[in-house]
Specification:
Elements: H1 3-19, H2 25-29, H3 49-55, E1 59-61, H4 71-86, E2 92-97, H5 104-124, E3 132-138, H6 149-155, E4 157-162
Parallel strand pairs: 2-3
Antiparallel strand pairs: 1-4, 2-4
Helix pairs in contact: 4-5
Length: 163
């Protein structure tokens, strides 16, 4: 088999393996942004990465070729800001990501704009800027493998993680 066939086979096997793994569903599908703290019963350690993902939401999503925060993203960032104020010793990194269309350089710049937009929103909501760092991965770290709109939509994001 040639390298392309082997890569395709590996990707299919990876997707198939992940499809049955319900424990990792939030991270793989990007539902971290949709978590609602009022309805969540959590066993996560308060102030931890797991607490952020389960009870607050760790990501905001963007439209194609955009870096402006949508209404749902503003709600997630408001919850993140409230959570960060509750845990003043926690620092975070916001990673800007893109779908796999476009050049590497363009997507790194777009990912940086997305991460910066999320950081600016958190700072505007009262989180000290020195508690937030940003990084862009461009198209290098997709959340979902696939070349279709559903996958691309999940990969256009800014993900907040606890340092």
């Amino acid at each position: 088999m040639n390298l392309r066939s082997m890569t395709l086979l590996a990707a299919v096997l990876l997707v198939a393996a992940c499809a049955g793994n319900e424990g990792n569903k939030g991270a793989a599908t990007g539902t971290g942004g949709a978590a609602m703290p009022a309805t969540t019963t959590s066993t996560a350690t308060p102030g931890s990465e797991q607490d952020l993902v389960q009870n607050v939401g760790d990501r905001v999503f963007f439209d194609f070729d955009k870096s402006d925060i949508k209404a749902e993203g503003r709600q997630t960032l408001q919850r993140q800001a409230d959570w960060l104020k509750k845990y003043p010793n926690v620092t975070v990194t916001i990673a800007g990501n893109c779908d796999d269309r476009g050049t590497r350089e363009y997507n790194l710049a777009l990912g940086e704009r997305r991460a910066s937009a999320a950081k600016k929103a958190l700072v505007a909501l009262g989180v000290p800027a020195n508690r937030i760092s940003t990084i862009s991965y461009g198209k290098e770290r997709p959340s979902v493998v696939g070349d279709n709109e559903a996958a691309w939509a999940q990969n256009r994001n800014a993900i907040t993680s606890v340092n």
